[in-house]
Amino acid sequence: MSELDLMYDETEQTQTRFVGFIGQMSRFDVAITETVHFFGKKLVYCMQSGRSAILTAEEAEDTEYIASAFHVTPEEAEELSSFLSANL
Questions:
Q1: Alpha carbon separation from 47 to 11, 12, 30, 32 (Å, rounded)
Q2: How many folded domains does the chain comprise?
Q3: Per the domain annotation, does 9 fall within a domain?
Q4: Can you give the residue range of the structural domain that contains 79?
Q5: What is the pLDDT of residue 1?
Q6: With CB atoms 3.0 to 4.6 Å apart as the test, which of 42, 44, 63, 72 could cross-link to 76 if both were Cys?
Q7: Containing H/E element for 78?
Q8: Is 47 part of a structural domain of the chain?
Q9: Per DSSP, what are the bridge partners of residue 42?
Q10: Torsion, CA 79, CA 82, CA 87, CA 88, rounded to 10
Q11: Rounded distance, CA 9 to CA 31, Å?
Q12: CA 73 to CA 64: how far, in whole Å?
């Protein structure tokens, strides 16, 4: 086995908010984690799909990126984007 080059190994306290909501198109269950590790951005994890993205509120406004990152329809991306941009 080859030797691994460890880039970082850190432990920190984080704050995670778990939110479930129902829009007109779909239900979403997300975890939003605040950490200093992502330089002001938040880790958003979708518990249904297991997909995640590291976002700011401004980046969450990009519905095409939200659709791609979370594998949702454009309509679902609008709802998720609206929630995230107001809550990140």
A1: 23, 22, 6, 11
A2: 1
A3: no
A4: 15-87
A5: 58
A6: 72
A7: helix 74-87
A8: yes
A9: 34, 55
A10: 100
A11: 22
A12: 9
The pTM for the full model equals 0.89
CB 54 within 8 A of CB 69: no
* Residue 50 within any structural domain of the chain: yes
Q: Which two tokens stand for residue 82?
A: 């609206």
Q: Dihedrals φ, ψ of 29, to 5°?
A: -125, 110
Residue 45, domain member (yes or no): yes
The string of DSSP letters for 4-58 reads P----------EEEEEEEE-SS-EEEEEEEE-GGGTT-EEEEETTT--EEEE-HH
Per the document, the length of the chain is 88
DSSP state of 1: -
Check whether 41 has a pLDDT greater than 90: yes
Burial bucket for residue 32 (CB in 10 Å: 0-12, 13-18, 19+): middle
pLDDT at 64 over 90: yes
Q: Tokens representing 18?
A: 């778990």
